[in-house]
């Protein structure tokens, strides 16, 4: 999993898996979802990310079962 922020376009890209994207679906006018051939989620793109996410407060926690 990789999360990248492109400041020049204010775009947040969350890549969940390394797979070939076969379709991009619009969730709304500023959110795109990429899926593979089996319909599994590959990536999420969020436009206007500064207004839609708290980028400065990003944390990551792995919870063991």
Q: Would you mind describing this structure in some detail?
A:
By secondary structure, the protein is mainly beta. It has one domain. It is about 5% helix and about 45% strand. The protein contains one helix and five strands; from the N terminus they run E-E-E-E-E-H. A five-stranded antiparallel beta sheet has the order 1-2-5-4-3. It is globular. The mean pLDDT is about 95.
Keywords summarizing the entry:
65 residues; 5 strands; 43% strand; 5-stranded antiparallel β-sheet; 1 helix; mainly beta
DSSP helix fraction: under 10%
Count all strands and give the number. 5
In terms of DSSP E residues, the strand content is 35-45%
SSE class: mainly beta
How many domains is the backbone divided into? 1
Q: Give the C-alpha Rg.
A: 13 Å
Order of neighbouring strands in the sheet with most strands:
1-2-5-4-3
Summarize model confidence as the mean pLDDT: 93
The termini sit apart by: 19 Å
List the helices and strands and how they pair.
Blueprint (H helix, E strand, L loop, with lengths): L1 E5 L4 E5 L7 E6 L2 E5 L5 E7 L1 H4 L13
Antiparallel strand pairs: 1-2, 2-5, 3-4, 4-5
Give a brief outline of the structure.
This protein is mainly beta and about 60 residues long. It has one helix at about 50, and strands at about 1-5, 10-15, 25-30, 30-35, 40-45. It is globular.
């Amino acid at each position: 999993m990789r999360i990248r922020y492109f400041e020049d376009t204010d775009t947040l890209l969350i890549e969940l898996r390394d797979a070939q994207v076969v379709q991009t679906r619009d969730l709304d006018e500023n959110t795109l979802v990429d899926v593979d051939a089996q319909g599994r989620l590959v990536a999420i793109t969020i436009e206007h990310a500064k207004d839609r996410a708290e980028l400065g407060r990003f944390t990551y926690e792995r919870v063991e079962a």
